Amino acid sequence: MILLGVLILAGLVLSAWRLLDHRADRKAMRELVGLQPAQPPVFATEMVADLPEPARRYFLYTIEPGTPLATVARIRMAGRFGMGDRSNPNYLDFEATQVLAMPSGFIWKMCARRGLMRLSGSDSQQWTRFWLMGLLPVARFGGDPDHTRSAFGRYVAEAIFWTPAALLPGPGVTWEGLDSDQARVTVEYSGMSQSVDLKVSADGQPIEVSFQRWSNANPEKQHRLQPFGGYLFEFRSFDGFRLPTHVEAGNHFGTDEYFPFFVADVSAVEFPWV
Known about the structure:
The chain is built from three helices and 13 strands.
């Protein structure tokens, strides 16, 4: 009876803990959505006339003239998330909703399944928190400079995918040309700086994103700068933005160790107004 009581109490504590995580996720999403300008300016080609040619083509491809320049997006996606490595990907099928508000932050809330096994939780600039079967906490970290710096690289790069308006030239955002088809954007925010390289096609479609990410995804499990990147496919229009709906990305991009652990198909991109 004592053991049964202990098990019941442990279950109640874990359930309450999981509920607090859900509430924190929803609160973070509301706060990020609240950063959306209520009446943003609209896009005009003159805004990018002085940019390096690849960057100019990128914006002209991804944003239609007259589009309200929303910088916060809610993205719904499904795909595969690799828990292993190149030799043994160990993919899980997942569904997720993400709110992206570069440069302030993001939150990615997901649920993954394989057979009877279920993994759920969220990732953000503040935390990584995942639960097994909704009952057992299997990953809880964040709230330190390494996590913040690593997350910053991720969501600056994802802004190229899904919120191009957030990367228009302005305070904290600069562009430089690398060659006829590549440009580099550098974002500075809250004492951090992240550069991301973008490769575009002749018509300006973004096809490849790469950068040096602060990461411990290495055999030594030590944080250091290492290549990260991926490829963009299947573009569709969402409220005046032309965005990729298939994304493949992973660690050690451009090397023999590249492993696309993140493979996602986007079903919706919404720009919530407040």
